Each structure stands twice: as C-alpha cells, then as structure tokens.
UniProtKB/TrEMBL annotation:
<dbReference type="Pfam" id="PF14748">
    <property type="entry name" value="P5CR_dimer"/>
</dbReference>
<keyword id="KW-0963">Cytoplasm</keyword>
<comment type="similarity">
    <text>Belongs to the pyrroline-5-carboxylate reductase family.</text>
</comment>
<feature type="domain" description="Pyrroline-5-carboxylate reductase dimerisation">
    <location>
        <begin position="156"/>
        <end position="258"/>
    </location>
</feature>
<protein>
    <recommendedName>
        <fullName>Pyrroline-5-carboxylate reductase</fullName>
        <ecNumber>1.5.1.2</ecNumber>
    </recommendedName>
</protein>
<dbReference type="Pfam" id="PF03807">
    <property type="entry name" value="F420_oxidored"/>
</dbReference>
<dbReference type="InterPro" id="IPR000304">
    <property type="entry name" value="Pyrroline-COOH_reductase"/>
</dbReference>
<keyword id="KW-0028">Amino-acid biosynthesis</keyword>
<keyword id="KW-0521">NADP</keyword>
<dbReference type="InterPro" id="IPR029036">
    <property type="entry name" value="P5CR_dimer"/>
</dbReference>
<comment type="pathway">
    <text>Amino-acid biosynthesis; L-proline biosynthesis; L-proline from L-glutamate 5-semialdehyde: step 1/1.</text>
</comment>
<dbReference type="InterPro" id="IPR008927">
    <property type="entry name" value="6-PGluconate_DH-like_C_sf"/>
</dbReference>
<keyword id="KW-0560">Oxidoreductase</keyword>
<dbReference type="InterPro" id="IPR028939">
    <property type="entry name" value="P5C_Rdtase_cat_N"/>
</dbReference>
<comment type="function">
    <text>Catalyzes the reduction of 1-pyrroline-5-carboxylate (PCA) to L-proline.</text>
</comment>
<dbReference type="InterPro" id="IPR036291">
    <property type="entry name" value="NAD(P)-bd_dom_sf"/>
</dbReference>
<feature type="domain" description="Pyrroline-5-carboxylate reductase catalytic N-terminal">
    <location>
        <begin position="6"/>
        <end position="93"/>
    </location>
</feature>
Amino acid sequence: MAISGRIGIIGGNGQLGGAIARRLLSVGAVGDGDLWISCRSGRAEVPRGVIVGADNQALVAACNTVILSVPPAAAASIAIAAPGRLVISVMAGVSLARLAALTGSARIVRAMSSPAAEHGLAYSPWVAASGVTAQDRGTVRAIFDACGLTDELAEEDQIDQFTAMTGPVPGFVALFADAMIRHATARGIAPEVAERAIRQLFLASGRILSASHESPAEQVRAMVDYAGTTAAGIAAMEAAGLARAISEGLDAAAARARILGEGGA
C-alpha cells in the first residue's frame, strides 16, 4: 500500500538509509517520483523514478516526510530548514531537542532501525515530539511496518537502549555465533562444517523464537527443567556471569550512542 506524499531520505545511499529506500520501493510503498534521496556524492544506484541529488534543502522543499539517515557525527552537517515537515531521524543518539534545533521542525520523530529493514526484518521503535500529529503517526507506522515490526515508545531515553539491543544486526548475535564456531574448531571440527551448523542453529532459533507463544525465559526454563545437556550448558554460562556480561555490553553500547548523538567522538 502506497504511503501518501513524497518521502525524502537524507543519507539514502548509506547502509541504513539505502535499506529503507529499497524496502519502500520493493513493497510498493512509494510511487514513481515519490522517493527522493540526497547524499554527498549526489549519486546512488536506484531504479528509474527515484530522484537523487546532493542538495538537502531541495529534498526538503519537495518532500512531505524527511528521513535523516546520516552518521550521528555528521548530524550538524545536514543543514536544513524543515518547518512544517515530518522529520524522522534514525541517527543513533541524536535527541528530539537537538533534532528540532537542527531542522526547525516541531513534527519530529526519533527512531531506531537496522539494515534488516531491506528484508522486512527490522525492529524499529520510535518516539514522537509533542508536535507530531495523528496523521504523522500513521505515516511513521506505515514506513516502519513496511520494514518489519515497530512500536511507539513513551519515553525517549528508551531509544538508546533499543539502539544497543536491536540496532546492531547481526552484531551481538554474530559475536555469540562466532564464539560457538571458534569453540567447535578448537575441538577439531572443520571450520566450514562448524560455520554451516551454527548459521543453521541461529536461523532455526530465530524463527522458533519469533513464532512461539512462549517467552524466551519460558523456553530457557523448559530446557533447564528437562535437565539434559543444554541445561548443563545453561548452568555453566550463568555461573560464568553471561547475563551480567551481556548487560554491561548493552549499557556500554547505549552510553556510546548518547555520546555520538551529542557530537562526541
């Protein structure tokens, strides 16, 4: 279903901006001429009918909705005046207040997404400033529904937590998978066999977690209650402080998001 009005993506040839653009195009959410992309080079490999340039302000003038998808350290370089426009930022750590100052818009949405958007697999939570209308909220939901799953949050500070948890795809999951592969190869299993096995494990696990009515905690408890080999592994990982290490890692990632969003290095 097409989204009403033109959508412009500043940074639309980057990893995240490009993923969102390609998804909107592939599902028919934007019509011919209704997607604009601005980037420093002024060039991007896009289908016919997508308008590409290097002038951010020209994009703002032409579009009803503007998505900001540049690295947070480059936020100050956006240099746009966007009063009256719906502005959606997927820049990590950049606050609603700073976004309003950078764009001049009162209709600001701060969101988090991931390159999994291209496959319709992103989780994209967002929080809205007080000037965002009910119609704006419908547009935001339509964009992020096309990219996967989405929720509106009540508290802005929660966005940094989701930046840490759901932004890095595959990120932390890949770290865990790599640790399992290295464990297997250290015990004599051929690297290509270990990698194939672990890739399949995570594929199956993701699908089962997504489809199951049981929470992850309930599934862990069921494994522990079964008292088999997995229970022994879970007990050892818990004793080693796995949960604490994960929590500390997520806190570090969230803190880094805040620093980047404030223009820190």
